[in-house]
Amino acid sequence: MAKKRWIAGTVAVAATAVGIGLNSYLKTPKTYKHPAVSQWQPEGTRFSPPEHPVLGINDTFRSIHGSTRNSDEVLTAVSPAVELDWIAEPEMFTAEGPSIDRQGNIYFSPLTPMEPVVMVSLDPKNGERRWAIEGKPYSQGGGTPLVLDDPDNPGQQIIYLTLYERALAVRQDGSIIWDVSTGLKEPKPKPGKSRNAHNFGASYHPQSDSIFGLLIDGNMFALDRKTGERRLVEPFVVPGAPAIGSGTGRPAPWLIEKTDQTMKEAYGEDPQAPGRFSKVADVIYGGGVKVANYFSIDPNTGRIWVAATAPDEADAVEDGKAGNGALYAIDMVEAADGRYRLEVAASTYFEGGSGSTPALRADGQRVYASDDNGHLIALDNDLNELWRVNVGEQIPASITVASENNELFAITTGSLFKIKDHGKRGEIVWEANLDMYPEMLGYRNLNMLTATVTANGIAVMLGSGYEKGTVRLPIEIGVGLLDRETGEVISYTEGVEESVAATITGPDGGYYIAHSPIRRSISRALFGPLVSPLTGGIARYKPVRNHLLMRDTLCAADKRLSNALAQASSAPASSQANVVHADVLLRQANIALTAATQEGILDKQQLSGLSDQLTDIDTTALQQASTSTASLCEQLTTIATKS
């Protein structure tokens, strides 16, 4: 008997040791020692938004999806080599953002924080708090702050935050320009119900010079950009009934309760409306909300695009609930006394809901959305469907829209697809080949977040975890760069926490990730100490081996200048857009050059030679600029090969 117990004990110890060893093996990522330059090339004319003194250019993330068009595209490059630098405000659950100004300062609005603040600004160098704006306890958050240029003070920018009852315009130093009432009254939470008072973030309407806000209950308001004065003659609520909610994929009640407790331990909760995970589940699965996404404004026409629920009767069952989703095109129409009213110009309904913010092509002639059934849907600006492509399962986030090559990127909860818009049809070009971690016994590599198009590839948040069908529970998290041409992983760095915001990159080439673990909260609730503790706030992944970033910025600038040169006569607007893009990259190359020198990678002679060549580039002399940039790309490629 003792021998049997000894054998059983030995087997148990051995199994535990094997389990620990296997767990360590599965959590150890592949090393990408020599990240290469992508072979992707821009082809033909590119789409470009109109120039505007307030909107500026997409040189940084000015809103949750980069711009008011929600393209998730920035003109800068992201570093192919990064490392975790700092984590700031770890007690704050941050579901959206951050936004970043041209100097790299960071702005975000936490969701139901224990501290009574509605907006926080961080120093990019160390993550220290620069300032914070006070607000009501347990604020429902104002989404991602909007960063706009200040045409009255060239070189300066203004940050706008919209809440339910309140909206603010704040200078970069934290001084308040205006702080006004939106005219709305936040409803009191009912026992056992979520507090439906979240604002998805401010946006900008150029034609009326107005700041817009959209609430989870469908209320929409507009304020004068300069004064905060209300611009609408009458209240406007997006059509649609509260969502009926989907049971498909929704965690069991016992697991929701357990995950609520896990998140409470990490972030606290609103005593009047407890259940942090329950609230998010209502948004994700449509439980009683009308709007679950940010919205888009076309800078070309001023048309406003909102994904929401359809009217009650659209699903043929009149029960006060919406079983279908809808996309609304809304126009701002002049009314009396210099004010406006909002009118629905067009609408379209689709089965189930939508997890995506409407995303616009730069020329405003395409709108991209998704439904619950795995379709990426392309529509014209009157909401006539042009084509749809099915990626096999639900697309839970916004479509990424590139201004070059008619390329789109759509995610599922586990993968990422590149899709080509051929005008009358869409085509899946590739599914990303994610190979960061070993895969076995149901353990899989995962895409974790909306992709961002950068000048040198696709910035992504990746990870690994357990998969069963379409249910995926992440264990490991990190950031990476994909080759835009092939979908292969160029580089990957282990991270600390999941996000449901966007893959935010900064003007320095680093990543700035808002921590908002949803799936990892479930993993933590289920697996306990096998999953690392939850954390909040913002993490910075700083560029390292900055000569690689400099190489990528210069090679990307070379591609745009070559394209600009080829189109100078045939497509002057596209050519100029490529020149603007190259100018942004050349400025970023100078930043990377300084950082590479501080790292000791470049010696004084290399620094002097490269600096002189960079300084001499003048993009108004297009042919010479193209030749010089190509030479610098080649030089940095050689340096990178030897390092």
* Largest sheet entry: 5 strands, antiparallel
Query: What is the averaged pLDDT score?
Result: 92
Query: Beta-sheet strand percentage?
Result: 25-35%
N- to C-terminal distance? 63 Å
Which overall shape is indicated by the principal axes computed on the Cα atoms? globular
Number of helices: 8
Tally the beta strands: 32
As a percent range, the share of helical residues equals 10-25%
Instruction: Identify the quaternary structure here.
Output: single chain
Rg over CA atoms: 24 Å
Structural class: alpha+beta
Write structural notes for this entry.
The structure is a single chain. The chain has 643 residues and is α+β, with helices and mostly antiparallel strands. Among the domains are: 30-53 and 64-92 and 386-544, no CATH class; 548-642. Helices cover 22% and strands 28% of the residues. It has helices spanning 2-26, 253-267, 276-285, 519-527, 546-567, 572-599, 604-616, 622-642; strands at residues 82-88, 99-100, 106-108, 117-122, 129-134, 146-149, 157-162, 166-171, 176-181, 203-205, 210-214, 219-224, 236-237, 296-297, 304-309, 324-334, 340-351, 359-360, 367-370, 375-379, 385-390, 400-401, 407-411, 416-421, 426-431, 443-447, 452-454, 457-468, 471-482, 489-494, 511-514, 538-543. The strands form 8 sheets. Strands 26, 27, 28, 29 and 30 form a 5-stranded antiparallel sheet that branches. Strands 2-3-4-5 form a 4-stranded antiparallel sheet, with no helix packed on it. A 4-stranded antiparallel sheet has the order 6-7-8-9, with no helix packed on it. A hairpin with an 8-residue loop joins strand 3 and strand 4 (117-122). The longest helix is centred in the last third of the chain and has 28 residues, at 572-599. The protein is globular. Residues 1-20 have low confidence and may be disordered. This is PQQ enzyme repeat protein. InterPro entries: PQQ_b-propeller_rpt (IPR018391), PQQ_rpt_dom (IPR002372), Quinoprotein_ADH-like_sf (IPR011047), WD40/YVTN_repeat-like_dom_sf (IPR015943). Residues 324-494 form the Pyrrolo-quinoline quinone repeat domain.
